[in-house]
Amino acid sequence: MHPNDPKLRSFIDVDPSSDFPIQNLPYGVFFTPEQPDLRVGVAIGDFVLDLAALEAAGLIRFDNASGVFARPSLNAFMALGPAVWGRTRARISELLRHDHPELRDNIELRRRALVPRNFADMHMPIAVQGFTDFYSSKEHATNVGIMFRGKDNALMPNWLSIPIGYNGRASTVVVSGTPIRRPRGQLKPPTADVPVFGPCKRLDFELEMGVVIGQASAMGEMLTEQQAEEMIFGFTLLNDWSARDIQAWEYVPLGPFQAKAFGTSISPWIVTREALEPFRVHGPAQEPAPLPYLQQRGANNYDLHLEVDLLGAGTSQPVRISTTNSKLMYWSSVQQLVHQASNGCAIAVGDLLGSGTISGPEKHQRGSLLEISWNGSEPLEMPDGSKRSFLEDGDSLVMRGWCEGEGYRVGFGEVEGTIAPAR
Ligand code: MN
């Protein structure tokens, strides 16, 4: 049976509302208080399956590598390539099946290898080599353009031709749960004559998907759609924290710099490209047609539900502030990767690509506070009666996402971040 088969069942009970049925098997890196070595695991229901323990016990083997899962990141495993990714996922699926005895009936190994998820501390799943952030939602680019430049210059003339992006900072990509310190920077309110240096006053989030690259390309090499596809290991939720006041002053003419580089959060589980196969859909029609090197034949978007909750500082009731879908992205991840390599830029194992904020045409589908509060002119009403245009110290933001199968869901867990005051 294929590991995506909806009929598969595990000997571990998994609630239908869980993000982690046997059809998912996302990879992460974790440790426990009793065993603080970092190692790779997959999520299954309320458990983490310790793959380093299975490899040490000889239940998972690699032809020319060992200790692949007893590592602090997924990079060594990803470097082995898509054929190994597929074989390994099929083997893990087999070991977890209700009708397969190898692990099911090995009580001693089960005790060592199945860790309750609430005992596991999640670590950064990948060693990020390069971080690039794109700008793939037409609605988001239009909304931001209206606010920064006015209605007549909203969508820049290059936007429909180029998957616009910038190279961000790999050093400040952090795992869910890491506090985000309010940045300081140069601010120049429109009414001020000179800039000042101080804490950001317009701190925002951006709802994005992260694409995890598992194979390298050589400097000077272009990629086809097919090659780019096969280099993608998986996907994660990504919050591209943004300082709007720093951004507004610095972004001309070279684009975002300090406004984006102080923190980017990702969810701890990497959902494999293979697990998302059943949920492939075509993205929006691209008009005008992209240049030949960017044209794609395959359906390269995913029907992936996304939502954002804001828990205001000092409150106990989260507010749902955005509900959208990743299938609304105009430029696909494959097109972004093809474009990034098109000038000969080398792609590395462990590169991370942010999709860009995923907003939709409806108001409830806006993926940033800049859009939700329309640059502060339409503040959110919070349950305690306070108003929010941008994030306050102590505010906590949670993003979730999943694909809905028949009787199960392939989910991402969540990415959470709480704002700490500026130093
Ligand atoms: Mn972004």
Textual characterization of the structure:
The protein has 423 residues and is of the alpha+beta class. It folds into two domains: 27-123, SH3 type barrels; 131-420, Fumarylacetoacetase-like, C-terminal domain (Fumarylacetoacetate hydrolase, domain 2), CATH 3.90.850.10. Helices cover 19% and strands 26% of the residues. The longest helix is centred in the N-terminal third of the chain and has 15 residues, at 82-96. The chain is globular, with a radius of gyration of 22 Å. The mean pLDDT is 97. The structure holds manganese (II) ion. Manganese (II) ion binds at residues 133, 206, 208, 240, 354, 356-357.
CATH C-level label of the largest domain = Alpha Beta
- Structural class estimated from helices and strands: alpha+beta
The helix count comes to 11
- Number of E-type strands: 26
Total domains? 2
First-last Cα distance: 55 Å
CATH superfamily of the largest domain: Fumarylacetoacetase-like, C-terminal domain
Q: Could you please say which CATH topology of the largest domain applies here?
A: Fumarylacetoacetate hydrolase, domain 2
Task: Give a short summary of the structure.
This protein is an alpha+beta fold and 423 residues long. 19% of the residues lie in helices and 26% in strands.
